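Quick one: structure tokens for this chain, please?
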Amino acid sequence: FEKLRHFRHPNLVKLNSVTPTNEFILGSTDIVLEYRMVKHARALKDSLLSTVPRRDPLRTTDSATEGQLWTFAVQLVGLIRSFHELKVPLRGMHYSKLLYIEESSRLMFTGLGLVDLVQGSDKGTLEEHCAEDIRSLGEVLLHLVTGSVERSNPKEDNFWERMPWCGEPMRKLIEMCLSASATGTQQNLTIHDICTLIASRLSIEVGHQQGHVDFLHHECSKSQENGRMMRLMMRLNLILACEEHHTDERYVLRLFHQYVFHQVDESGRPRLDWGHIYHCLNKLDIGSDEIIQMVAADQDHIIVASYEDIKNILESSFHELEEEAQRGPDTAATAPTLMAGTPVSMLMSNTPSSLRAPITGTPSSTMGQPGMRYGMFP
């Protein structure tokens, strides 16, 4: 079992641990197999199979299409081949041991080591176990073709005529897998022969997977952009939340926050312009040299600054905030504790004057570092 724990494959649920225990039944030693949890996965029999055989080609059903059948066949063949190339049988492939992830049309085998535990690994030869894996593959595909958990016999008369959605190549693949044996006419059939049979479908599936990868990269790039925006907004709000430290530079950040998130139209109604917010935060992130005009809420002061200047102020202010947080509780200002039922007058009288300083105070005419390209106009 230690060797099985190291197997990795996109269509295999990892075996995390094998733990013996006697806590379930007194005097009995049981084995607990722990597998990795797969999010958004459902049992194959609950997703694509039913208890009613799929015999009516016009019946609406959730059974797999022929394209999905080939996708599943390529995945399971690749899984079996990865084991057989290492001279290790997979063992135990059955529709009840397969998970289905609908978003990516992926099957995952979740019974690794279970048959070895129940039946033992010493029974039978390697060739017999490998042939059993190939037959199990054929049975799983047959269940998917019929859309039923009931076992079917493809040798029945007119069986394939009742399955018009299954093409000739898929029929040939299923019949070849079901005929695999360690003895007899198909004793030399290996998983490499199955790979040769489905070679024409491999290139199609590779193209589908590459298209899906491109889609995922595109979606991840959106999340990356969202992360940059979130980082900027978190820094900006952390700085503006520190009411006890009002400097001229932080006053610029407060006006920039109003410029980005508090736009109004001619009638004074809120202007919800997502594009304005997105472009402003992007320009702030790259430190654009574009100059903007920011007007105070009382409209008595106007500040003109570039995005580059505002970014420098944001970074320096956040650095100061980090240094203040690292100094410890002895030097940090202590805010009053809000108790239920405390009168407002008592809160105001116990609040330090630095915390009660009005936000809309007039900044000085000297704005921070010399040479900064912003100014204030009363």
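The first helix runs from residue 44 to 47.
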